[in-house]
Amino acid sequence: MGKSLTHKIIESHLVSGNMIPGEEIFIKVDQTLTHDINAVMTYLAFEAVGIDRVRTECSVSYLDHNLLYVDNKTPDDHIYLQSVAKRYGVHVSRPGNGICHSVHVARFGVPGKISMGGDSHTPHGGSIGMLCIGVGGMDVATAMTGVPMRLTMPKVIKVNLLGVLKPGCNSKDIILEMLRRVSIKGGLGNVYEYVGPGAEALEVSARATIANMGAETGATTSIFPADEQVRKFLISQGREQDYKELLPDSDAEYDGFIEINLSELEPLISCPHQPDNVKRISEVEKRPVQQVFIGSCTNASYSDIAKAALVLKGHQVNENVSCTCAVASKQIYKKLMQDGYIDMLLDAGVRMLEIACGPCCAIGQTPATKGIAVRTTNRNFIGRAGNPTAEIYLVSPESAAATAITGTFATAEEILGIEIGKLAEVKEPKEYKIDDGMLIKPLPEEEALEVTVVRGPNIKPLPVPDAPQNYLCAPISLKGQDNISTDDITPASAEFSSMRSNIPLMSQYCYHRYAPDFAASAKAMGESIIIGGENYGQGSSREHAAINPMYLGVKAVIAKSIARIHKGNLINHGIIPMIFANPADYDGLELEDELEIENLLEQIPTRTITIKNKTRHFQFDVKLEITDNEMEVVLNGGQLTYLKKQL
Ligand code: SF4
Fold it and tell me: What are the residue boundaries of the Aconitase A/isopropylmalate dehydratase small subunit swivel domain, all occurrences included (predicted)?
């Protein structure tokens, strides 16, 4: 029986384990990436391990998310990150070079390799036939040590794309259709492998939008074959030598099947406050839009921005709309300038922002109170744009541009009419001017050993948890509902992003929008337990959503289900992830109830733990849905202590 592309890549990197869905396997990791607002903890952990140089083929540190130097914190972080990269053999992409995923695919990605990134949209690299997985920062630190990475063997789902997108539709509409069908939890444990004539016709930038935002389904990753489109892309990057064809076998066996006819798609919109709340733009009530943002790793490629510019050409941004645009990389920006598209945007009244993530993670361009923001980004959780009263809608660049003109939800066809066909003529450049001047290469090993790592006042030590004790008796410090996101736990914004290197400070704001008293009460409790509903910790790979509660004394999270990356982060940082054996037990628990666990260390290996509610006098069971290796990490109190024992 033939093999999927995913199976071929995993097999070629398999160190141990059986490739049976749900089983724990260990794989060799070729590449890692980090970005500035999560990375300090990653490199502090790597330093604490005590080896002299990264042991991957290529590790890159991107300074791309927070380029607003409003006080000392972010420059302190960037100087630390640049110096620690020099010391340990890591490439640096300097501020202004571009957003990590876009630059990584263009300048470092190689078909058939495996990459782990400390960012949930790392699957972006699946657009060129790489297997790219978003993980927590501690996992990236582990990968950099060369230790094989644990992975739960995913199911591989074939997504057969038929037909051709209509002009005015974008690959954003394909991934929004996927989200509509499978939901924000539907991808859990899956790799989506996109094939078929519709996939073959998509250029790498369009594939990247799909692979990137596949993260919103909860999938392990998404991948496209390395085919002629990938060869063309690598030629445009002057890297044809990195191309090798990688396809699934024609008789490949898959664990599931989805089919989408692209010809039937219409422009779609993800409505507040979850990415899977997807509707057709034509069926959404027309309401006044206050802000439009065109950008992010999801939708700021050359063709994305060029198409938005063509829609805006000859029009003015509506006077009630603030419209901004951030291009994904310097390379793309220069090509767009050369081809006249930046002029079109400026002439229409679009404000060009820095080449960075910026507004996507609430670093600048916060919407007004109760403002409606229409964005080409990938997330629309409450507060994601920095204002919890705002409503965020997600669309394609073409639809965002049309919305900027009309001041309400609109499609490109409403603006261009019979000229809509010209959007289909926009293609990715055959050739880019290659300029890697903003990439800093690793130093030779002997020189690197002489480098002093610079630690400004914002760089505080990495907190390391204790191993669990045999007896735990702790109150409930928070009872959350379904779909608590990492943004709820540790908010995104310029203010909070720059605190991520300083856990004593940042932990004071843990859950501060969702449960303003949490930090103070958890600290006063000493040790405590968090209760969650379904899909606890959904959203980003932000390990601060585990580190901050751990720092405040949280010992366990008991939830109906826990999002994949967040569960890994909890384990890595010494919080035990527990799942209600009977979800109805959630209803019987209240804030401050005292929960008692006896013989915890003996119960952990059985993967079922009995908990006594001492306040309400009943018992309930929880399950540990963890692998053997994860259990070792739990018993050691976290990945850092465990990892040090392995090296
Ligand atoms: Fe940056 Fe937004 Fe992409 Fe994250 S999702 S890497 S914040 S652009």
Answer: 525-582
Residue 322 lies in a domain: yes
Indicate the helix (H) or strand (E) that contains 181: helix 171-182
Identify residue 387 by its one-letter amino acid code. Answer: N
397-406 and 302-312 helices cross at what angle (nearest 10)? 30
Contact call for residues 439 and 97 (beta carbons, < 8 A): yes
Q: Give the tens place of pLDDT for each residue, 458-506.
A: 999 999 999 999 999 999 999 999 999 998 999 877 778 888 899 999 9
Inter-CA distances, 233 with 89, 175, 208, 304, 430, Å: 28, 21, 12, 16, 8
Residue 158 lies in a domain: yes
Whether residue 239 sits in one domain with residue 336: no
User: Rounded to whole angstroms, how far apart are CA atoms 613 and 589?
Assistant: 8
For atom 1 of ligand 1, which residue has the closest CA? Answer: 357
Q: Are residues 92 and 221 in the same domain?
A: yes
Residue that terminates a domain, selected from 380, 406, 421: 421
- Nearest atom (ligand 1) to Cα of 101: 6
Distance 38 CA to ligand 1 centre (A): 12
Range of the domain at 355: 268-421
Ligand 1 center from residue 101 Cα (angstroms): 8
Calculate the alpha carbon distances from 488 to 315, 484, 516 in Å.
Answer: 38, 6, 11
Distance between Cα 35 and ligand 1 center (Å): 10
* CB distance 596 to 473 below 8 Å: yes
Residues with CB under 6 A from ligand 1: 65, 99-101, 119, 121, 296-297, 357, 360-361, 377-378
Please indicate, yes or no, if residue 200 is contained in any of the structural domains.
yes
Closest residue by CA, ligand 1 atom 6: 297
Give the pLDDT confidence of 417-460 residue by residue, as tens digits.
999 999 999 999 999 999 999 999 999 999 999 999 999 999 99
Distance 133 CA to ligand 1 centre (A): 15
Is 80 among the domain residues? yes
Q: What is the CATH number of the domain that holds 612?
A: 3.20.19.10
- Are residues 273 and 240 located together in one domain of the fold? no
| Strand ranges in 490-551 using DSSP code E only, listed in sequence order | 528-531
pLDDT tens digits for range 74-89: 999 999 999 999 999 9
| The two structure tokens encoding residue 588 | 């019987």
- Expressed in angstroms and rounded, the spacing between residue 173 Cα and the centre of ligand 1 is 19
Distance, CA of 275 to CA of 393 (rounded, Å): 9
